[in-house]
Structure prediction request, 152 residues.
Amino acid sequence: MIRNESEYQEAVRKLVFEKNRLEEHRARLIERGLTEEEMKTVLDPILSFHLQFSEEVEYYEKLKRRELPDIENFKGIGHILIAARIALGVSQRELASRLGVSNSQVSRDERNEYFGITVERASRVAEALGLKMHTKVELTEDMSANRVLENA
Prediction:
């Protein structure tokens, strides 16, 4: 995950470099007379890397436009906290200051995507970012059916 502007700039540079490398590689394969199937076999790993990198850049750009993803059942809470910080234009340093912790602590937390974070700590980070998070609780059909069977 791209977490700051310098990582984004580096990713964009790599993306352009990889695109040019891919085009050059494709041209060399054509010169060698490879079939489409052979070229696909050779180029698939490069294309896969390029696609993944491209998706990361697009995701960061969406965050900068304040387009945040939804989360379900708290899965991805760490990811959304990082995404919100980016969308709000708050640096890791600024967040650390707001939380009263070291820059390295925020960097470490984000590198681990806040793995194992408590609800209280997530709430503290959200408040430091000025976020207002909503939780919607829905009973799934499976759970409702189990409850009816237990009461029967």
